[in-house]
Each structure stands twice: as structure tokens, then as C-alpha cells.
Amino acid sequence: MKYSQYFIPTQKNFPSDAEIISHKLMIRSGMIKQASSGIYSWLPLGLKVLKKIENIVREEQNKAGAIELLMPTIQSSDLWVQSGRYEDYGKEMLRFKDRSEREMLYGPTNEELITNIFQSYISSYKDLPKNLYHIQWKFRDELRPRFGIMRGREFLMKDNYSFDLDESLAKKSYNNMFSAYIKTFLRMGLTPITLRAETGPIGGSLSHEFQILANTGESTLYYDQELEKINPETINPEKLQTYYAAVDDQHDQNKCPIPKENLKISKGIEVGHIFYFGTKYSEKLNALIQNKDGKKFPVHMGSYGIGVSRLVGAIIEAYHDEKGIKWPLSVAPFTLSIINLMTDDKLCSEKSEFYYNKFIENNIDVLFDDRNCSIGKKLSDNELIGIPFQVIIGKRDLNEGVVEIKDRLNNLTERISADNVVDYILKKIKI
Amino acid sequence: MKYSQYFIPTQKNFPSDAEIISHKLMIRSGMIKQASSGIYSWLPLGLKVLKKIENIVREEQNKAGAIELLMPTIQSSDLWVQSGRYEDYGKEMLRFKDRSEREMLYGPTNEELITNIFQSYISSYKDLPKNLYHIQWKFRDELRPRFGIMRGREFLMKDNYSFDLDESLAKKSYNNMFSAYIKTFLRMGLTPITLRAETGPIGGSLSHEFQILANTGESTLYYDQELEKINPETINPEKLQTYYAAVDDQHDQNKCPIPKENLKISKGIEVGHIFYFGTKYSEKLNALIQNKDGKKFPVHMGSYGIGVSRLVGAIIEAYHDEKGIKWPLSVAPFTLSIINLMTDDKLCSEKSEFYYNKFIENNIDVLFDDRNCSIGKKLSDNELIGIPFQVIIGKRDLNEGVVEIKDRLNNLTERISADNVVDYILKKIKI
């Protein structure tokens, strides 16, 4: 993609209500634009990151055996009345009447609708287990939306729902999702810390929260250092669930069950939450399963959520410096940018164009900064938007037969023979 | 994907309000489930087709130079008041107040919001032309939703917006989209017929409608037979726009400008609509562009819509028989299904499993019907869901060293040496 033909409206300033660094950087790097309070348009760069994150979530769900479908954003109130949650949910649920005076709502979650879908088609133990998910926009009418897309009103979420014959099988499904979540966050370059959690309005008896570490995070976490050392190949969810972890207001130094030298304290951001709630919804919505003996029982359910749009902000909180964002490769909007410092120099332009075409041939998603603007603006924009690698084409360098390559993650630069640039990058990104 | 572990709830019956064949077949093949009036959940098979269609639309938009972003579903009424359309739009616009009593709406289209985004960042002729699109759910509060997802209330649409310095450049953008639309529909196996159209509430002076041919279509089209012979490599939009085409109530046999032998009459379904409306929105929303001489003018705009979810129904209307759907390869939920007729036979099961793994190795999206159910149900379900190729594994065939392969599009079957099955299919789908 040529920068001059693309649409990355970087900004020097940010709105005064942008309190946290991810909100500031998303505005400044032209990733989002506020449409109305707590509601954002995702500009091209922001949307690319959102899609990358969505896709990692999707791939890990599929690998874990979950099946994708898509429920609508607008629901009728009927099932919510039946489950008893229509009254329970407060003003955060956006409610309205359609033109025929039917009570409708913008779904904040989907336990009711998915239970209804399940019970419409599945009634035999032979069809279990089932794990159904979707990735869909939700609405939560926050009184005071803040932190940009981190606590917005319209947000993208992956939610799934497991259906099992009994509690012990349901806990297997729960642990399967527990592992899938850890793999998902690790793939994004994040360090997930798992905490036992309250079940809140979803209900149930077992729940875990997934926080990721970031110095600028909202919560303070106290946890066993073992939780930082997870190997995605050998995750043991049951063992992980035994390690100590607590947020600020639940941690009591005097009652902490682990030795001080094992305790770590870091800031975290919540990005996922999972629940086992047994038959809470299946009883009320009549989702019954016939077992081998022909007897009918309410199906055992769990639900599992990842804040897909929230992760965009969370990753920025974990990966940035004073100059801008430093995207991990797996979620970066582009793999690399080619920065032509001298667009009016024939050699610089030809060489830049040559690399651009070579990278495209190799299926690398490359941003070519061909803009006719000052070197200063070019370099600072590229620092700000945080593409993992910068290939910087300057006249003096080219005359010496070299090109500068910058690794944005560690801010190290190397000067590489101009002939080796493509191979060097391909090796770096392991293709 | 193994059928037994997937979720395709095929049905014998369909609701009494399902009047058209695509609605009946989508319910019967377990692609969708009604959530409330005119609002549907997309079950796994339906979602897969929807995503395939969405992706073709996206690829052709990108090829045509349009840039993807994503506007939210919920908008504030402010910009609509400014453009004058808040009053104009009738009850089909879903309106409501949020918890802070602000007037909000579920976007039925996005001329206002995109113009606002554009004018926030772009003010120089140097940044033109720009063409911005998104693929997003819309809501249209139809009084009597019908025809399943073909005239539902919540629907997925691709809409884009072009921005140019003057009318003649804007018409270039218009013609560029005209060509992209034809390529898009041709890739889905459809025959698009283009008609000059009314501009309606969008406004403007130039508009075309894209209908696709289907025997069960809603409109009757009268058109020059040349329109059926478009070559995607050599589309000439200006020439195409000169050919005669009219819907039923606009066609007058006595005034028809082309010879009778060139006139074709077919049924069609509208799947796209494009508009050039000049400065209608840019004037009201203050989207001004500075030209080379430093003078400011309102930017010239066009808007372009494709009914992404509607296309799922339209393709079924064009491709079905009395047994079910016949998906064109480019939008099929799976490329082929392996049907094991005898799941309790060791040889049949081993051979089926062998093919299944081979196809997966070759990156073919394959559905493996491993269900333990009657041969009759297996065959009829597979006809119904309409996967392009069926690889049918039977015991008697295997003993003779052959396998039956059915091409669902023309319903022809061939018996192929069991050793050649994978190569035969790979050749058929040209990988």
C-alpha cells in the first residue's frame, strides 16, 4: 500500500478527555475517530489491527473445536424476560421499541439467544459436546464512556457458549477454553495472568478473569511468578488454576499463601472472562438433553468472552514508548514500512519502488511511505504508527550501498547491504 | 470438518411465511434461524457463505483502489439533522434515545458520517481522489419484513463513498465502481444486468441499479442481449451504460429503442445500487476542498451499495433445483463433501478418512459426512446443502476399486478409480 494513496490521518494533538496512553496514541496515529460519545469509527489502520486480532481469536477458537456462527445485534426482549435478566440488567442495556411497538434491545451478551438456538435443534446426548461462538458488536450504554475504545459503548467481542451433559464434562469444556484463551493472548505477544473471579450478573459457580500485563494497566495484580512462565505447548489449566493471583483489593499481605520471593506485583488490564454456570439458563429456557437412558436433563453451560476491540487498546498499553506504538508482529497493521526519505531523488525512488514490488511478490503486507513531505514528519509518523520494521532509504546511505533497517520493538537500527534487504527482512519475520 | 461434530441443523419443514425458494432453502439447509421478525441468526453454514461473499466484495473493492474502514452501527442524530435527512427518513429508520436522552439511530446508510470523517481530515486537492468503504450491519425497520434475509431488518451491506475535485473526475470514480460491481457479481457466478435508475432519498443526478438474473426473481427485466455478454477483462462502463435495459413498469414495447431480436426478457433481483450526487452532502456538512488556486469548493461525491447478506439469497434464487441449493464454487461453504455411506464398514471408513486427510493436506475446505444415519438422509442432506462436489464412498463401489463423484451444479456423476480421486478433484477445481 502506498502511504500517499492510503488514509492514515495522523494528528499532533489528542482530545482533552483522552486520559490513557492507548486512547491518545490511537487518535494520534489515525486509527480511530470518535463518532459520538463512546462510539468510534475505525479508520483503515485501526481496522487492520482489529481484524488481525479478531483473526487470531477466531483461529484459536476453531483449533479448540468451537464452531462459528453469528447472532444479530438486535434482539427481542422475549427471551430476556423468560430468563429473568430483562429486569436484572440495568440502564447499560440499550432498550427501545420498534415501529410495531415491540420491545427490542441491542445485545450486551447472548446467553439467552444461544440457548434458544441450541434447544431448537439439539436434544440428544449424542450431539454433545457443542461449543458455539460468534464475534459480534455489542452495546453497553455506559453512563460515562472513557478510555477510548477500552471502555466504549459499541465494542467488538468474541463470546462463546459450551453445552455439556453434566458438570464434570462441562468443566472439561471450561478448561479447554481456559487453555485456548492463554494461547490466544500469548500469540499477541501478551502475558496473560489468570485470576479466580466473581461471576456477577452472568451467574454460576466458577469463573476466571484474564488480565494482561502492562505498566499502564488499570488494576494492580499480585500473583505467583509461575503464572508468567506459561508454555503454550504444555498448558495445564488445572495446575494453573492452583497458583495464587489476586487484584489489589482482594490481596492481603498477611494472608498471602505463597512465599514473598515468589510473589510478583504488576499492573494489568482485563481482556477476557470465562464462566461455568451450570443449568441457570437451560432450566429457564427449557434446553433439555436426553441421556442414554432416555431421561431429560437441563444442559450444562459455560460462557466465555474476549474483548476483541478492547485488546487493540490493551496491546498498545503493553507496547509503546514516548514516540508511539510498537506493534508486535502478529497484530501489526503492516509488517514493514519502506520510508523513502528523498522522493525527488531518482535513485532513492527507484530503489524504494524496487523493494516495494519485491516485498509484494513475497506476500509481505508493506506500507510504502512515498509521501512528498519533510523527512522529520515522515520519520515521526512512522515511529507513531509503530510498524515493526522500517526500511529507510536515504541518498547518502544508497551511495554507500547500504540501507537502514529499524526494528521498532527494540528501537535498534542496522545498516544492511542494499542487496540483502529483502532476504534480511524475510529471515527476520521467518517466512 | 466432520459433519458429526459440526452444526448443520437441516429441516424437513419451513415456516409458513417462507414464500420464496431461497428463504425455504436457507431454513431447510440450516443456514439461518429467525431470531425475531426480520432478524436472523446466521448458523455456521450460512455464515460461511456470507463470509465468502463478503470477501469477494472486499477483494474487488481493494482492487479498484477503495480503502476499507469501519463506521459504527449506532450513530448520533446530529449529522442527520444537519443534512436534512433526519426528518426525510421515515419510520424505517430505527431511532431511540440513549440513557442520557441523546437522540440516536441505527445507521441505515452512511453518507453523513463518512462526509464528516472526510472533512475532518482532508482539505486539499492533493489528497484526492479518495474512495472509502466499509462492510457493516445496517437496520431498516421494515413494517412487514419478508423473504427471509432478502428483505430483513438487520442486513449486511458494503457501502462506499467517492470524493473527487469535480464532476468529471467524480464520474470517473463512478465508472470505476460500475466496473468493480460487474466484476464482483461475475465472480459469484451471477449475470449482472445494469439499469439506469431513480436516485430516491440518496439524491443526485445519476444512478444505476445492478440486478442479477434468476428465474424466480422479483422484477421482470427487458434488456439488450449484449448486457449478458460482458467480459470481465474488457469492461467498458460507458459503452455498457448505453445499452437498453428497463424494468417491467418502465418498459413500453412500442417505444423500445432496440430491435425485437436483440431484446431479452428475464427475471432479476436487485443486489447493488450506485449514485452520483455531486455536492448534496458536502455542501450541507461543509466538506470543502482547496484547489490548486487556493479556492475552496464542496467535494463531489458518489455512493455505492452492495447487499452482501441479500446476495446469499439472490445466489440461491439463481442456483437451486427441487432437491436443494447448487452453490457456485466461489461462494460455496465447502468445496466438497466426502459422504461415507457405510460408517460401520471398516474399508469405507478408512478410505473416507484417507481422502479427508488428503484434501486437508491440500488446503481444500472439505466437509466429511461421517454421520451414523441412513443412506437416504445422508444423500438428501447433501443435495440440500449443495456443496459443489460430492465424493460418495460405497462398499460395492470400493470393492470394484471405484468411487462416485457427483458434480452438484449439473447433477452429473462419474465413477473414478479410487486411486485418482484426489487428483481428479484438484484438477476440477484448478488448484
Short summary:
The structure is a homodimer of 431-residue chains. Chain A contains 13 helices and 23 strands. With 431 residues, chain A is an alpha+beta fold.
How is the secondary structure organized here?
The structure is a homodimer of 431-residue chains.
Chain A: H1 21-28, E1 32-36, E2 39-42, H2 44-63, E3 67-68, E4 74-76, H3 78-83, H4 85-88, E5 94-97, E6 103-106, H5 111-121, E7 130-139, E8 154-164, H6 167-187, E9 192-196, E10 206-213, E11 219-224, H7 237-240, E12 245-247, E13 263-278, H8 280-284, E14 288-290, E15 296-298, E16 300-307, H9 308-318, E17 320-321, E18 324-325, E19 336-340, H10 346-361, E20 366-369, H11 375-385, E21 389-393, H12 395-399, E22 402-407, E23 412-417, H13 421-428
Helix pairs in contact in A: 1-9, 2-6, 2-9
Q: Which percent range fits the helix content of chain A?
A: 25-40%
Oligomeric grouping of the chains: homodimer
Shape of chain A: globular
Largest interface: A-B, 55 and 55 residues
- Gyration radius of chain A (Cα, Å) is 24 Å
